[in-house]
Amino acid sequence: MFTGIVEELGEVTAVEDLGDAARFRLRGPVVTEGARHGDSIAVNGVCLTVVDHDSDSFTADVMAETLTRSSLGALAPGSRVNLERPTAVGGRLGGHLVQGHVDGVGTVTAREPSEHWELVTVSLPAHLARYVVEKGSITVDGVSLTVVEAGEEHFTISLIPTTLALTTLGHKQPGDPVNLEVDVIAKYVERMLGHRVAPATAGEESR
């Protein structure tokens, strides 16, 4: 489990095509410190497993499903990536609960800079719109953010200077893809309410 507070802006140093998967080599001395084989590290919001590592880099295998359903398939040597280690039990929850399971891919459609912050508009896949609400939480490329405006086909986020400087979101331009993970609590609530409503409807039909 992650919190969406990016620890480091890392870099892809190598991508090996494995046919039905790919092997990524990523530089990130902060997240690699103390890493062990089998540990999890979020890369642009996607939870990946450490296969190998040295003092400043680690290797992770990415299956075809993940390459297809996230923006990781577009990464190449030199690409910058947001990196975060799982939160420790008892640690501070600086952002919100993030699983590292991408729900869909959006596209940056507009950037509106101001003196001290920037408003960014991101397209929203139709099947995710019901989970995104104004002032709610959403994860964009692994960054925990607050939704400013929620529409049926888009949402907006405000980025402070720290986020612009220390994450990939400071460099994303209109047309660039971003990984989206909606608040998992919203999905659980929907599931539970669905189970509660279904029996009542069936009972009404039987009367």
From TrEMBL:
Q: Which InterPro entries match?
A: ATP_synth_asu-like_sf (IPR023366), Lumazine-bd (IPR001783), Lumazine-bd_dom (IPR026017), Riboflavin_synthase-like_b-brl (IPR017938)
Query: Has UniProt tagged this entry with the keyword Transferase?
Result: yes
Its signal peptide is none
Write the record's keywords in alphabetical order, separated by commas: Repeat, Riboflavin biosynthesis, Transferase
Q: What class of enzyme is it?
A: transferase
Is the keyword Oxidoreductase in the record? Answer: no
Which pathway does this chain act in? Cofactor biosynthesis; riboflavin biosynthesis; riboflavin from 2-hydroxy-3-oxobutyl phosphate and 5-amino-6-(D-ribitylamino)uracil: step 2/2
Q: Where is the Lumazine-binding domain?
A: 1-96, 97-193
What's a Gene Ontology MF term here? Answer: riboflavin synthase activity
Alphabetized SUPFAM superfamilies for the sequence: Riboflavin synthase domain-like
Its annotated function is as follows:
Catalyzes the dismutation of two molecules of 6,7-dimethyl-8-ribityllumazine, resulting in the formation of riboflavin and 5-amino-6-(D-ribitylamino)uracil.
Query: What's this protein's name?
Result: Riboflavin synthase
Which species is listed as the source?
Streptomyces koyangensis
